[in-house]
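ugh ok fine here u go
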Amino acid sequence: MKQESDEQFLETLNALPDKYRVPYLYCPKCGASQMETCNRCDQPLHETWIVCPKCAKPVGEKL
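structure:
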C-alpha cells in the first residue's frame, strides 16, 4: 500500500463530510486536547490530524 503524501492526506481530510469534523480534537488514548502535547507519545496534537502520530489512535473520537 502506497503511503499518501501530506498534501494528499490533507485533500482527503478536507473532503470529509462535516459530520466527521469535530471542533475539539484530542487523543482518546491519553486525553490530550487540541494543540496540547500527547502524554503518551509527546507529540503535539494538531487540528488537521485525525490520528495521533505515535499513539495511532483516532483524534476527536470519544471512547
